[in-house]
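Please, does this match?
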Amino acid sequence: MNKDKYPVLVDKYIYKTYNNKYRLFIRSGDYYFSRMYNTLQEAKHVRKIKMSEKVLVNNKKIRNNATVNEFVNIWISIYCMKELKTTTTYSMKHTLDKYILPEIGEYKINQITPLQLQKFFASLRDKDNFNQTGKVSDKTVYRVYKIMRNMFNKATEWEFVSENPIIHIRIKNVKHRETIIYSKNELLQTLNLLRKENIIDQTMFSLLITTGIRKCELLGLHIDDINLIDKTIIINRNLNYDKFNHKYIEVSPKTNASYRIIPIPNTMAEILNEYLKYRFTIKINSEILFVNNNGKRIGFDFLIYRWNKFISKYNLKRVTLHGLRHSYCSMQINDNKYLNIPMVSKLMGHSQIFTTLKYLHCTESKNVCYIFDENIEL
């Protein structure tokens, strides 16, 4: 047999396979984990998490005596903080501290029963939000349920509980309200109104309208992500706010589909060109695309504030910044004869076409921009 086909140990618990992939293989006591990764970096990242899990799984004393409070601290530190966005973890911890831990935090996690959880959710509906009057909303109840489901799924996987009690509980999902969007004509009208605004606002909001990118992608852009020759922008990072450390951080996109190159209309290229000239005149030395006059990065609160001020000024329909993304997606599907749904899904950075269809509100192509270029004069 060809020896080259045998895996080669390249780092602790990590083997390089004959097809140039990396297998993370950990077997120790009661712990077993094996999975293939495309890069050594990915395998090393997962190894850090799995090594922490290995300690827990092999330490029966910790597993058998852990309270819900103690498990939550472990779960957040070795899973949530490393696998989820900091904003997601912060939101989950807030919900845990407010609704879950005061009620069941002192119980041993392996003694929580389905009946106890059912009573917990029944009582939760009768509680008030701020220790005053008014019941907890169905939306909040469902959010609590999702967090507890995630928590108990991990507790089962790590063998803190022998049987997952949450699988016997069913909570009705809450239907989300339809997102308010702009029609094609309303988008074009908004772009024309933005021409009257300062160059920073005009550039930021015109870019959101003409590309459909997320606001975290917009604020994560660097100057060298803009290609005015090819008339494209590159999406390869997001801006997040770390609520634990109170600072903005740049992170990689959540999925591979979010890495993409998006065409921009001729009008948008002209606006970006004017904005870059403005940046040059105020002599700000920063690779970040959107900064204020003092060179400080523009954050989410300022972005939302400026948008709300703009739509109030012209008495426009109150569409959110995420609503602009919905508007762009719907317009490309409904009005762009050159694109099909898979093409639009790729533009949006969606991993699944099903997600794109949720953005559709009924009323890689060089023709992505034709709607804007045909309707707005330079």
Summary: Confidence is low (pLDDT under 50) at residues 129-133.
